[in-house]
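Predict structure. Chain length: 223.
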Amino acid sequence: MISRFHFPGIAVVIGSLAVCSARADTPRDYYNQEARIVGGLEVVNKLHLTPGQEALRTRWYEKAFNEAGYILNLFPNHPQGLILLVQTCEQWKSPRCSGMDDAFEKAVAINPNAPGTYTTIGIYLHRRHQYAEAIKSFEKALEIDPNSVNAQYNIGLAYFESKQYDLANQHAQRAYALGAPFPFLRDKLQQVGHWKPTPTPDPQPAEASPQPPAGRQGNAVKK
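Prediction complete.
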């Protein structure tokens, strides 16, 4: 029975054909599920993202740069592809990296409402020590998604570097409440005496409580 067997080689070939087909079409939005399937995202990640990340790890910058470029030609707002490009150019210092702004413009243009794109741009600006511009980009991400762990955490780092410690702590508390796994920001705030945990409000009952007596209505929680 053929259905009991798996042929990964065939899957790769089919996926590669999908990628080739995608190359002839307009670039696709990473955050659109249908576009991810049609554009062969799974194969792109396997054949280009993973090798690109390995090339960066071994300091084969030209290959890492080319892999990032290939990915972003297909999915201009691919978050890991953008990060690969940022990290490669940060280390490589090549004239070929002069088109970073163009790459980000294309990423925003294909989907202006993807918070991950603005977070990635913010990370890039932060690494260039452009903290005010980075904060603006993180703020844009948080306008779209206030619960973005990455945006909350990274804007906290940018505020810390700008010595705006109260704001750094505010966003750090939010980031850790959302599940940020990295202790670095907390440790930095503790070192300067600005780690100030926010009290956790008492949990509210899932269902409405019975109407309190008239004389106690002033104690009701206002939502």
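Summary: The CA atoms of residues 173 and 197 lie 6 Å apart.
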